[in-house]
Amino acid sequence: MKSHDTSLKVLMQQVASGAAQLPDFQRGWVWDDGRIRALIYSVIRNFPVGAAMFLEYGNPEIQFRYQPIEGAPASAASEKPSMLILDGQQRLTSLYNAMYAAHPVKTQTEKKQPIERYYYLDIEKALDPSSDADEIVRSIPATKLVTSNFGRTVELDVTTQEKEFEHKLFPLNIILDFVKAQDWQNKYYAYHHFQPEVIAEFTQFSTKFVMTTMEYAMPVITLEKDTPKEAVCQVFENVNTGGVSLTVFELVTAVFAMHNFPLRKDWEERQKKYFSDEILSVLTATDFLTALTLLASYKGNRTVSCKKKDVLNLTFEDYQTYADALCDGFVLARNFLKEERIFSRKDLPYTTQLIPLGAICTVLAGEHQLMTKVVRDKVRRWYWCGVFGELYGSANETRYANDIVQVVAWVKGGDLPKTVTDAYFNPRRLLGMQSRQSAAYKGIMALILKNKSRDFISGVEMDFTCFADENVDIHHIFPRAYAESMHYEKAKWNSVVNKTPISAKSNRTIGGDAPSKYLGSLERAGAITPENLDEIVETHWIDHELLRKDEFEAFIVDRAKKLLDAIEQATGMPVSGRDSEDVVQAFGQSLK
């Protein structure tokens, strides 16, 4: 890269000519009137406003579609740029429109109401040390009239150059044009009859503000045109923390635009058709491209990988070939998750595991294998090993690649996938899961639902319909208020062992009472017998006898054993250490 200072006038000329344009991934200009005025004040006072970053255009490996800065002349769009603006779009657009373009600036208020403005410097206020920035930099409506009383009273009129002279307001959009600024100055002197005090005042103003602004320079960092796409993406992420974040999707969008393909529009249509439900709405555009890269590299018999650099090198041909099938694969993944009693995005253990799951389902569906029980059981086992092994919480691209290769091979008779052999669940982890933030916590709730657990009052199995209609959520079995009154150990009463999914109505009925008391309330509310309620309670892996006797410590041990049994069944792997010294110390006895 190269770093150098460039005069503001030269930068504005580059924008106007189309020599400096935006890559297609840059978003729209969003600065409001207040931020523009603050930026102008910084420039006229010769304060630093930060560096801009450009990318030399011309690398055949980075064929981004480009577009002029908003407000630039129409002729700029027909020019091929020499530079693409990676960082500094908002500042350069604001400065161009306010300090170079002849037209009014299309901006917005702080409340995001659209407005059009011209900007002026108040000559007298600029020279008064007691003036603040808002008094010096004036924002005037496009009509060049400042009015009050609903437009009936004119407070300020600068509709002609003579009226600008009268109010001593210097138009900012000529400040970088020496000829226009000099012409305005001469006419200003003439309007005031060449009064010595007026000339002295303007000379001081011109020296302090006009000439300083004409000489103002911004630091510009230029990345050479052979900079790799991955580096462009990483650099942009590092420097653009205050603006709109650049994602891999934005860069791929710009690349595909060279094929006249509107990737953003295509994704929005797919999102509406396939990814708007309770589960798949969690997937981002970048997630989709990551899964697509994974699928394409597998199907293309290439090195299977979906790291950032691989996604950035995704070809338009691969997108066209596999995008539709992948959408269908994600639908199969969603249906699989619903079968596992995961009904909403908040209850999804890992968003990240959806990426390989969608790709795996696509491959298996294409080979007509996904519907067989043997295949589904293997996919299910892989999935739960990932959840209870808590293996998808960090950088996962290498695991994704292993998953699609190894799970498909396993289905065909190969060895166990690494995700299965890596899975390990410590029994003490049950007490560490205090909220639904952890994947394993959400996994346990799904297993309880999958056990055909029924709501305490209605007795209805909590399938998808009941889950949505009855406002099912996770609640304490021994209520918090009761547990605190009995001084039970919080690590136990607030853990996943003491929680289960029930409806809001059941939870209200339970209140803060002891189980022995609230069970009677539930019987009356549901008009059911104690025997029926006992059967319902047991569907949650809760021993009804321990519950009716308020045997908290025995209940915790018994339910922990049952939850561990369920984890073993789901993962197909034994939970080791159930009778270890640490476990006995934590639970009071062995969980074997």
Task: Describe this structure as you would to a colleague.
The chain folds into 3 domains: 2-219, no CATH class; 247-422, no CATH class; 429-575, no CATH class. It is 51% helix and 11% strand. The strands form 4 sheets. A 6-stranded mixed sheet has the order 1-12-3-5-2-4. It is elongated. Helix 12 packs across helix 14 and helix 12 crosses helix 15 (354-366). By secondary structure, it is an alpha+beta fold. The protein has 29 helices and 14 strands. The longest helix has 24 residues, at 316-339. The two termini are 63 Å apart.
* Helical percentage: 40-55%
How many separate helices?
Answer: 29
Biggest sheet, strands in spatial order? 1-12-3-5-2-4
Class based on secondary structure composition and strand pairing: alpha+beta
From the structure above, extract its key features.
592 residues, alpha+beta, 3 domains, six-stranded mixed sheet, 29 helices, 51% helix
Give a brief outline of the structure.
The chain is an alpha+beta fold. A hairpin with a 4-residue loop joins strand 9 (about 145-150) and strand 10 (about 155).
Layout of helices and strands:
Blueprint: E1 2-7, H1 8-17, E2 20-23, H2 33-44, E3 52-56, E4 66-67, E5 83-87, H3 89-99, E6 105-108, E7 114-122, H4 123-126, H5 133-136, E8 137-141, E9 145-148, E10 153-157, H6 161-167, E11 169-171, H7 178-191, H8 196-214, E12 217-223, H9 229-239, H10 248-257, H11 263-274, H12 285-299, H13 308-312, H14 316-339, H15 354-366, H16 373-388, H17 397-411, H18 418-422, H19 429-432, H20 439-450, H21 464-469, E13 473-476, H22 480-485, H23 490-493, E14 499-502, H24 504-510, H25 515-526, H26 530-538, H27 544-548, H28 552-571, H29 581-587
Parallel strand pairs: 2-5, 3-12
Antiparallel strand pairs: 1-12, 2-4, 3-5, 6-7, 7-8, 7-11, 9-10, 13-14
Helix pairs in contact: 6-7, 12-14, 12-15, 14-15, 15-17
